[in-house]
Write a structure and sequence with these properties.
Blueprint lengths: L5 H9 L5 E3 L5 E3 L2 H10 L7 H17 L5 E5 L4 E8 L4 E6 L5 E3 L1 E3 L6 E3 L2 E10 L5 E9 L2 E10 L14 E6 L15 H15 L3 E4 L3 E2 L15 E5 L17 H15 L7 H17 L4 H31 L16 H9 L1 H27 L5 E6 L8 H5 L8 E5 L9 E5 L4 H6 L3 H10 L5 E4 L7 E6 L8 E4 L2 H15 L2 E4 L7 H9 L4 E4 L20 E4 L8 H5 L2 H8 L7 H21 L11 H12 L6 E5 H5 L31 H6 L1 H10 L3
Length: 703
């Protein structure tokens, strides 16, 4: 029996809101009434009083019967699709499906004995139709009734994605890296798309790697201060122009000498900052240089290409560019702009865009240029023999003051942020500060925002890692003013979201990897595997149900396996207990440091013994941290996992973490340039000739 009132419990049930959950210790936890009411309010459903709850339930019933067609139906290929149509009782109705190709097919009406329903004084009837043998794609159904013609989406998705043709079903491996940290002799103090192309060329040709996995390359703020975390972007649909290499833009070759000298001077000035990566300074310099390049004009064919890009980008690209220009003038937080500019469709915003037309086009040009340079990196990877190439990363959400919340404010749930319930690493829970999509609004919009985002993320790359893919099933919503531990799970239509992801991956012939770490319902991993989407395994965290280290033969085949991840120190740092010392230094330890160090030593000793017993580490070399790190990667090759990952930081010998969860400014998260084991800054070119990357590459290739 629920601890909530019957009406509130039913509302929560119908809208996918959890009223209870089991925490990381296995304790049964009840969700408070205040949390459920706040979440319902964010979905647009008032439920403060018993009357409001009864009214809300009545409206849900009436809406179902008043709506002629369901707004969006998603099915797997080969399934029979059933569509229920609601019309005035006794009136005729016919249904046709209009395929993406334009072909029209009639649907077959089937028996439906559901009694008519009185809605606001009028009887409504329900008729059912079936659609069979539909091809993959985004189709529409049209119902012709006495009330007119009504249309809705029908999306047919692949039942299985699997590996892209380039892999040919074989095992592959690649490097994971934080691109901004990998600088070269010609970059601007931050890794860029040209560095990515060069890295892919080396990794593919010299080390036979199949891919390079990069951090999210999403657009950040248009002006300083720029958020350091690539996982807190301003838009997941557009690229970050910070990664553009100005000198690689073709028009650079035709610039007058004084202009080129000015750009070289800008580059020299921002390269001086080496201790930590200074995105603000780099972007200020790059933006000035890129403006010079934009104003230099383009040869006719290049202009045709830009015009086509802008045309295909449509209003979404233009609106993002308008947001960028508004940010330059009024600051990054659109919620603090003049009120008349907070609406992207207001007359004031349109007037502003017209007055700033050249600057708006500049930001469109930046997206075109960024896409061209990312495409060049993928081409370089393919030419180097990589079966996958660039493996992009899709962040779980955007910031509250982001471009997306300005552009699509009604799609996001107000007064809510996303996070995670308490676990062994964050016992107070987590609040990531990101507003969630309202699942009701997503369905109304036929999932178009999600479709566009995934399509953009897969544009000219070989695959996609989905950060916190569990968020396509359920997300932990935290109402404003409450602690993260006082949140609750809200369910999403995973059949629709995973199906759309599968369809876009199929069309892009791309590999899809879901980061499914943390608190996961057991059936979710089985579902992802059935749909041919890979999960994630981290060596330090792979334990079975009994708390024992998972044997290598038990690791999932459809899985991307690695020793470490960006939320841990590189392997050499972890082996030296850097994760414990750093957490002590930052005041994050929950237990005495001596106890934590002893636990780390016990874990390390256990792994050394295990590596020796599996024949991947010589006992004589057990005291050598580098040999242990290499042995751990040999161990990965004993597993069933088809996709293996080595950290570029491990190849460099780096010990410092890129990110320390639970901190903001206490640690330079996402700003640490790549270094060797002695802490010396390491250039990309140094990796090409260094011994450790060669040795790690040989291990990953089984030599």
């Amino acid at each position: 029996m629920s601890h909530l009132t019957a009406e509130l419990d039913e509302l929560a049930e119908r809208l996918g809101i959890a009223r209870e959950f089991w925490d990381w210790k296995g304790n049964h936890t009840l969700i408070s009434e205040a949390t459920v009411i706040a979440v319902l309010r964010a979905m647009g459903v008032g439920a403060d009083t018993p009357e409001e709850r009864r009214d809300a339930l009545t409206r849900l019933d009436e809406q179902h019967w008043q709506r002629v067609l369901p707004p969006c139906t998603v099915a797997e290929q080969g399934e029979t699709v059933r569509i229920d149509v609601h019309v005035p009782a006794g009136s005729p109705v016919s249904l046709d499906v209009v395929l993406e190709s334009g072909e029209r097919r009639p649907a077959t009406q089937v028996d439906n004995w559901t009694p008519d329903r009185e809605v606001k004084g009028h009887l409504r009837g329900e008729a059912s139709f079936e659609l069979t043998d539909l091809p993959l794609g985004y189709h529409r159904v049209e119902a012709t009734t006495s009330e007119g013609v009504h249309s809705a989406a029908v999306i047919i998705t692949p039942d299985f994605v699997g590996f892209p043709p380039g892999m040919r079903g074989n095992r592959t491996w690649g490097y994971a890296l934080q691109l901004y940290s990998v600088t070269s002799k010609r970059s601007w103090g931050i890794g860029d798309f040209t560095d990515l192309a060069d890295l892919a060329t080396w990794a593919g040709n010299e080390q036979q790697a199949g891919f390079v996995l990069v951090n999210p390359l999403h657009a950040s703020q248009a002006v300083a201060p720029i958020d350091s975390s690539p996982y807190l972007p301003s838009s997941r649909r557009f690229l970050n122009p910070l990664y553009i290499r100005p000198e690689t833009v073709p028009e650079y070759a035709n610039l007058a000498q004084p202009t080129r000298r000015r750009i070289r001077k800008l580059r020299k000035s921002v390269r001086k900052r080496r201790e930590i990566i200074d995105r603000d300074a780099v972007w200020e310099g790059k933006r000035e240089a890129l403006w010079e390049l934009f104003q230099a004009g383009r040869r006719p064919a290049r202009q045709v290409s830009l015009d086509g890009f802008r045309r295909r980008g449509g209003s979404a690209l233009r609106d993002f560019a308008v947001w960028s220009v508004l940010s330059e003038i009024h600051g990054n937080d659109w919620r603090l702009w003049p009120e008349e500019l907070r609406d992207p469709r207001s007359a004031a915003t349109e007037k502003f865009a017209a007055a700033q037309a050249e600057r708006v086009e500049f930001f469109e040009w930046l997206q075109w240029t960024a896409q061209q340079q990312l495409s060049a990196a993928q081409t370089a990877a393919e030419e180097a023999g990589m079966g996958v190439g660039v493996l992009a990363d899709l962040a779980v959400g955007v910031g509250k003051a982001s471009a997306e919340t300005w552009l699509m404010g009604d799609v996001y749930a107000p007064g809510i942020t996303v996070g995670a319930p308490p676990d062994q690493y964050n016992q107070g829970g987590q609040d990531w500060g990101q507003p969630p999509w309202n699942p009701l609004k997503l369905e109304e919009l036929e999932y178009e925002p999600f479709r566009a985002m995934v399509r953009a993320a897969l544009n000219r790359v070989g695959g996609l890692r989905i950060d916190h893919i569990i968020g396509l099933f359920r997300l932990w919503w935290v109402p404003e003013g409450l602690e993260p531990s006082a949140g609750t799970y809200v369910r999403y239509n995973h059949e629709a979201l995973i199906g759309i992801l599968a369809l876009e991956a199929h069309r892009a012939q791309a590999l899809v990897v879901g980061e499914d770490l943390g608190t996961v319902e057991p059936w979710v991993r089985e579902y992802l595997s059935r749909r041919g989407l890979l999960g994630t395994a981290i060596l330090w965290w792979e334990y079975g149900a009994e708390g024992q280290v998972l044997p290598p033969e038990k690791w999932r085949e459809y899985c991307m396996a690695s020793v470490t991840t960006h939320d841990l120190p590189p392997t050499l740092g972890y082996l030296e207990s850097e994760h414990v010392r750093l957490r002590e230094q930052l005041g994050l330890l929950l237990e005495p440091v001596e106890q934590e160090l002893a636990a780390a030593e016990q874990e390390r000793s256990m792994w050394v013994e295990r590596l020796i017993s599996f024949g991947v580490l010589d006992e004589v070399l057990a005291g050598d941290r580098v040999e242990v790190m290499l042995a751990m990667h040999r161990y990965l090759r004993l597993t069933n996992s088809k996709v293996l990952v080595a950290s570029l930081a491990d190849a460099a010998g780096e010990k410092r973490a890129q990110n320390q969860p639970g901190t903001m400014d206490e640690y330079p998260n996402w700003r640490v340039p790549l270094a060797d084991s002695e802490g010396r800054h390491l250039m990309l070119e140094d990796l090409f000739t260094a011994d450790l990357p060669r040795r790690l590459g040989e291990v990953m290739n089984g030599r």
